[in-house]
Amino acid sequence: MAKFEDQEVQVQQQAVEVIDAEPKRKWQSYIWDSLDKSPEERHFLFKLDLAVLTFASLGELERSLSRMNRC
User: In the Cβ-directed half-sphere of 45, how many Cα atoms lie within 13 Å?
Assistant: First the structure.
């Protein structure tokens, strides 16, 4: 019975090690961070990036136009 319990403890320890282990990062993830994320999170980040870039571009366009208008 003790041998069975020892094996069970070893299996549990191995399972905990597997669960705690972090997945290996792909080399692309150092350049593009969202490759290791879930599809839902990548979609959200895409939408967020799109919104930020849109407003930043419109703000820069407005600033440029207002500078031209001063002369």
Answer: 11
